[in-house]
Design goal:
With 200 residues, the protein is of the alpha+beta class. 16% of the residues lie in helices and 40% in strands. It contains 3 helices and 13 strands, in the order H-E-E-E-E-E-E-E-E-E-E-H-E-E-H-E. It has a 6-stranded mixed beta sheet with strand order 5-4-3-2-1-13, covered by helices on one side. The radius of gyration is 18 Å and the shape is globular.
């Protein structure tokens, strides 16, 4: 089963752990040369950040791409061009039981929004009836485990100019995540300031 294959891929990856700023930071180096970095809150064990770096066509290191975490201008600093802070801001922030996406700076009443699943394209779609916002996005976790997207798992709410879209995690994912967090806790993590941070 694909869930087991992904679990095995995670187990085989070389891992480096670091405890810093109240977070467990884990770096994975996979057999194909791709890398994944995750950060977990030490108190709640919730995933705070996940990013990927894949090899380029010529075998060099590519840029990091964010999968889970805050992409707001406060979190991502750049000296050049800055996005308008009043534009809708799309980010993923998971909970223990759900994948969750937040679209900030979007103030339409809740009846304007429509959230659906496109099973053939394996993605979720957010639309507004006033045609002011449209977003199509996938759930990479389900793609990696080749699990189907279920309309019944999808829900949304709106408060404080933020649309919150939730997708209830399937039992297979909940079990996998629980096992993974247990294994990560066994990793010998160095504290910030320690120089030796060997990959295991």
């Amino acid at each position: 089963m694909a869930v087991q294959r992904w679990a095995d891929t995670l187990r085989k990856a070389k891992k480096t752990a670091l405890i810093s700023d109240g977070k467990r930071k884990v770096h994975y180096l996979f057999e194909d040369g791709n890398e994944m970095a995750e950060e977990y809150d030490l108190k709640t064990d919730e995933l705070v950040l996940r990013k990927w770096r894949c090899k380029t066509a010529l075998g060099g290191q590519g840029q990091w791409t964010l999968e889970v975490g805050d992409t707001s201008p406060k979190a991502v600093t750049t000296d050049l061009i800055k996005e308008n802070s009043s534009n809708p801001l799309f980010m993923r922030k998971d909970t223990k039981t759900s994948y969750q996406w937040r679209i900030r700076n979007i103030s339409y009443p809740i009846e304007v929004y429509s959230v659906s699943i496109e099973p053939m394209e394996r993605c979720c779609v957010i639309r507004t009836s006033n045609k002011k916002y449209y977003k199509k996005f996938s759930i990479p976790d389900l793609d990696r485990c080749q699990l189907p997207l279920e309309s019944t798992a999808l829900s949304f709410t709106h408060a404080n100019n933020t649309l919150i879209v939730s997708y209830k995690k399937p039992n297979e994912i909940l079990t996998l995540e629980q096992e993974l967090v247990g294994e990560l806790k066994k990793l010998k993590g160095t504290n910030e300031g320690d120089i030796d941070c060997k990959t295991q």
